[in-house]
C-alpha cells in the first residue's frame, strides 16, 4: 500500500528518501514519486514514475534538495499513471498522502468553483489545493495544514512542504500511520519506522487528529485544538533487519525456509516446566484469562485463517465458545457481545485498516479486554490493545504471508492452552501439547526437505485455471490458506471446501482438468477423508494428497501422495501449511508471476 517518507537536513536528502521508499517497496505499490526543494533557489522539483523505485532513482538523475517528501502509491482513486502518482502540487505547495479522502468529490467541486484546475483523478490532489487556499490567510505551513484537515473526511497521513517556506515540513495523521524520526540536526517522517531505520532509532508516534511541524532543529506536535503537546521519544529496540534475499530467488521462498527459526523464536520464553507462561500475553493476562468465558476473533486475509484454526482449538481443547469474523464485516455489523468475551485481533502488520477499525469498535461493545497477536511491536494495533502477544517471525517482505501465519498459530495454540488449563486441560495434557510445540522447529525443517518433490509436482498445476483444496476439521482452514496462496501469487482460481461438503456442489466441477489438493493427516477424520477422496477419483479427478506417512495412501494414476512425516495431531495444521506454501510458490515461479509483489495486492492494507 502507499508509503510516505520525508526528510529535512543540511545535506542532500534524496538518498534518505529513496532508501526509505525501497524499504517500503515490499508493501506493494504501482507508482512512485518525490518532491525536493532545490538547495539554493528553493525551487520545487518533482519526479514521478509508474513502476518501481529503481526507475524513480534514475528519474531523479542527480537532482538534490535539503527538504523532500516522497511516496509510493497503490491506486485507489484514478489509474496507476504518471499524473496520478504523488506528490501533488498546487502553486508552491507539494503534498503526499496515504489513505482515502471520502468527501473529495464535494471538495473538488468547491475548489473548481474557486478556479482551481485539477491535474489528476486522485482524491489526494484536493489536499494540495486546499493548502494553497489556506495559505492565503494562514501564516505558517502547519496552520494551513490544520485548516485543511478540518475539511477532510476519511483516513489520512499527509506530509507537505512549500517552496516559499523552505525550512519546514508539515504533517497530519488520522486513521493512517505516521511517525517522526528524530535525528541530529536533521529530522524525518515516514508511514512506517522501518523506512527510517537506516538513519535513526528514535521515533515519535503521532496520534490521530494530530499535526506536526518538522524543522532541522526539531519538531512540534499539535493536538486537534492547535495546542502543542509533549510526546516521549521511543527508541526502537529491534535490530535493523536485513531486507535482502540472501541465497534465495524470492523473499517468499526465504521466508518459507525461515520458519523453523521463526517458530523457535516465537516459542522462546513462552513456555517453561512443560507449561505455558501466561506473561507472554502481558502482565495482566492471568487475571483476565481467569474471567474469559468466550472469545471473539477478528482479522483479515491469512490472519483470518489463523483465527479459524484457533476456533477449533479453543472449542475442542478449552471448551470456550469462539466466533471468528473478517474485520471488514465485523466493523460495520451490529454485533452481540457475550459476557466476559475476550476480543482477539490477529495481524502480521498491526496496520490493517479494517482490523484497527474493528478494535476501535470493540472498545464500545462491552468486551472483557482486547488481545493483539501481532508481528510488529511498534504498530497501532499493539499500542491500542490491553494484552499483546508478539510473534517473532522477523520482518516479512513477501506479500503472501507465510512465516507470520505459522507463528500466529503458535500464539493461538498457547492461548487455547492457557484458557483451557482453567477447565478442560490438565497438567498431563498441557505437557503433551507443549511438547508438540517444542517439536515444531524440527518437524518444520523436515517437511521443508520436500521442496524439490513439490517443485516437480507443481508443474501439474501450471497450465490449470482452477483448483480445489479440501480439508476436514482443523485442516479445513489450512486448505483455505493453501487455496488463498495459490490465488494470490499464481493467479489460479482456487476454492477450499470442507471435504464433507463435496457432494453439495463442488463435485460437479471435478474432471481431469481440475487438480484437487487434499490435506489428510492422521486423526479421527482420516477414514472420512479417504471416502471423500474416493468420490473425486471416481469422477476422474486428479488428486494431490498431503498425507501422514502412516495414513496408508498409495500413488496411482489419479493420485499423487506427498508423504508428510508423522507428527502429533496438535501441531499438524502448522506442519501441513508449509508444503502448501511451497506448492503455491513453485506454481507461481513456473508461471513467471511477480511472486513477492503479486499484481493488485499489497502487504499492508492501510485503507478500507
Ligand atoms: C493483505 C496481505 C495478506 C495479509 C492481510 C492481512 O491482504 O496481502 O498477506 O494476510 O493483508 O494483513 P495483516 O497484516 O493484518 O495480517
From TrEMBL:
Its main location: cytoplasm. The keyword Cytoplasm applies. Coiled coil: none annotated. The keyword Cytoplasm applies. The active site is at residues 2, 603. Transmembrane segments: none annotated. One of its GO terms (molecular function) is carbohydrate derivative binding. Residues 2-217 form the Glutamine amidotransferase type-2 domain. Pfam families: GATase_6, SIS. It catalyses: D-fructose 6-phosphate + L-glutamine = D-glucosamine 6-phosphate + L-glutamate. Keywords: Aminotransferase, Cytoplasm, Glutamine amidotransferase, Repeat, Transferase. Its EC number is 2.6.1.16. Residues 285-425, 457-598 form the SIS domain. Catalyzes the first step in hexosamine metabolism, converting fructose-6P into glucosamine-6P using glutamine as a nitrogen source. NCBIfam families: glmS, PRK00331.1. HAMAP family: GlmS. This is Glutamine--fructose-6-phosphate aminotransferase [isomerizing]. The gene is glmS.
Amino acid at each position: 500500500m502507499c508509503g510516505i517518507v520525508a526528510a529535512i537536513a543540511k545535506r542532500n536528502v534524496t538518498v534518505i528518501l529513496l532508501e526509505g521508499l525501497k524499504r517500503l517497496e515490499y508493501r506493494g505499490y504501482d507508482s512512485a514519486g518525490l518532491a525536493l526543494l532545490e538547495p539554493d533557489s528553493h525551487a520545487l522539483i518533482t519526479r514521478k514514475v509508474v513502476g518501481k523505485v529503481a526507475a524513480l532513482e534514475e528519474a531523479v538523475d542527480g537532482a538534490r534538495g535539503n527538504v523532500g517528501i516522497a511516496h509510493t502509491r497503490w491506486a485507489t482513486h484514478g489509474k496507476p499513471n504518471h499524473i496520478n502518482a504523488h506528490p501533488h502540487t498546487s502553486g508552491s505547495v507539494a503534498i503526499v498522502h496515504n489513505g482515502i479522502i471520502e468527501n473529495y468529490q464535494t471538495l473538488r467541486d468547491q475548489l473548481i468553483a474557486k478556479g482551481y484546475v485539477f491535474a489528476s483523478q486522485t482524491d489526494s490532489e484536493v489536499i494540495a489545493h486546499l493548502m494553497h487556499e489556506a495559505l492565503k490567510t494562514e501564516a505558517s505551513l502547519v496552520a494551513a495544514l490544520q485548516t485543511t484537515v478540518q475539511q477532510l473526511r476519511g483516513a489520512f497521513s499527509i506530509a507537505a512542504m512549500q517552496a516559499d517556506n523552505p525550512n519546514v515540513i508539515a504533517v497530519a495523521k488520522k486513521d493512517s500511520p505516521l511517525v517522526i524520526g528524530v535525528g541530529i540536526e536533521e529530522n524525518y517522517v515516514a508511514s512506517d519506522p522501518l523506512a527510517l531505520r537506516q538513519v535513526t532509532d528514535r521515533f515519535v508516534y503521532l496520534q490521530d487528529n494530530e499535526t506536526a511541524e518538522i524543522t532541522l532543529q526539531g519538531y512540534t506536535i499539535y493536538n486537534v485544538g492547535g495546542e502543542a503537546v509533549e510526546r516521549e521519544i521511543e527508541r526502537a529496540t529491534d535490530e535493523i533487519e536485513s531486507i535482502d534475499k540472501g541465497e534465495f530467488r524470492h523473499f517468499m521462498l526465504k521466508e518459507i525456509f525461515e520458519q523453523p527459526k521463526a517458530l523457535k523464536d516465537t516459542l522462546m520464553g513462552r513456555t517453561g516446566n512443560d507449561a505455558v507462561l501466561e506473561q507472554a500475553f502481558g502482565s495482566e493476562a492471568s487475571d483476565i484469562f481467569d474471567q474469559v468465558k468466550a472469545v471473539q476473533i477478528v482479522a483479515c486475509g491469512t490472519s483470518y485463517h489463523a483465527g479459524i484454526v484457533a476456533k477449533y482449538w479453543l472449542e475442542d481443547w478449552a471448551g470456550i465458545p469462539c466466533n471468528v469474523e473478517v474485520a471488514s464485516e465485523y466493523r460495520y455489523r451490529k454485533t452481540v457481545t457475550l459476557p466476559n468475551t475476550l476480543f482477539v485481533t490477529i495481524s502480521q502488520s498491526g496496520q490493517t485498516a479494517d482490523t484497527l477499525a474493528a478494535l476501535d469498535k470493540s472498545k464500545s461493545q462491552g468486551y472483557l479486554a482486547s488481545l493483539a497477536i501481532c508481528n510488529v511491536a511498534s504498530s497501532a494495533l499493539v499500542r491500542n490493545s490491553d494484552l499483546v502477544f508478539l510473534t517473532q517471525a522477523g520482518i516479512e517482505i513477501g506479500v503472501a504471508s507465510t512465516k507470520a501465519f505459522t507463528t500466529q498459530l503458535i500464539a493461538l495454540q498457547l492461548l487455547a492452552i492457557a484458557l483451557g488449563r482453567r477447565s478442560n486441560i490438565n497438567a498431563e495434557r498441557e505437557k503433551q501439547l507443549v511438547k508438540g510445540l517444542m517439536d515444531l522447529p524440527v518437524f518444520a525443517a523436515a517437511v521443508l526437505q520436500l521442496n524439490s518433490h513439490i517443485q516437480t509436482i507443481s508443474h501439474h498445476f501450471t497450465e490449470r485455471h482452477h483448483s480445489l483444496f479440501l480439508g476436514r476439521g482443523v485442516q479445513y482452514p489450512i486448505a483455505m490458506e493453501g487455496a488463498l496462496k495459490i490465488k494470490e501469487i499464481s493467479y489460479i482460481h482456487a476454492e477450499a471446501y470442507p471435504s464433507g461438503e463435496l457432494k453439495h456442489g463442488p463435485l460437479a466441477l471435478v474432471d481431469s482438468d481440475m487438480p484437487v489438493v487434499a490435506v489428510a493427516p492422521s486423526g479421527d477424520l482420516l477414514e472420512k477423508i479417504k471416502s471423500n477422496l474416493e468420490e473425486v477419483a471416481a469422477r476422474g479427478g486428479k488428486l494431490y494428497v498431503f498425507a501422514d506417512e502412516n495414513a496408508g495412501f498409495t500413488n496411482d494414476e489419479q493420485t499423487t501422495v506427498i508423504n508428510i512425516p508423522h507428527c502429533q495431531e496438535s501441531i499438524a495444521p502448522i506442519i501441513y501449511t508449509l508444503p502448501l506454501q511451497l506448492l503455491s510458490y513453485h506454481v507461481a515461479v513456473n508461471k513467471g508471476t511477480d511472486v513477492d509483489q503479486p499484481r493488485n495486492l499489497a502487504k499492508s492494507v492501510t485503507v478500507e
